[in-house]
Design goal:
115 residues; mainly beta; seven-stranded mixed β-sheet; four-stranded antiparallel β-sheet; 56% strand
């Protein structure tokens, strides 16, 4: 069973930065895609950014130029550097990985941006 552990959420003022981390373990196969999603109160979960095993990235328009997704040197780790944070970035952020055709999710980490 794939297990995902997220860390790095918290409270920050608008304009500040946070760095989220995700560590995956337990996969018998290579992870094809890693990504971050978020869900704000009363809203549907939405894509933030993804990165493939080859390093290709994809971002939601709302975070382009402010957020950077990357994979770490350690196997199956991923980061989300979030700069110039806005109150509308407030949400629970979830780590997600795809192994072959199955997707796995972390428990989520809260990010709160105060105005």
């Amino acid at each position: 069973q794939v297990r995902l552990v997220e860390s790095g959420g918290g409270l920050v003022q608008a304009g500040g930065s946070l760095r989220l981390s995700c560590a995956a373990s337990g996969s018998r196969f290579s992870i094809n895609v890693m990504g971050w999603y978020r869900q704000a109160p009363g809203k549907q979960r939405e894509l933030v950014a993804t990165i493939t095993s080859g390093g290709s990235t994809n971002y939601a328009d709302s975070v382009k130029g402010r957020f950077t997704i990357s994979r770490g040197n350690a196997k199956d780790t991923m980061y989300l550097q979030m700069n110039s944070l806005k109150p509308e970035d407030t949400a629970v952020y979830y780590c997600m990985v795809i192994v072959i055709t199955a997707d796995y999710w972390g428990q989520g980490t809260q990010v709160t941006v105060s105005s």
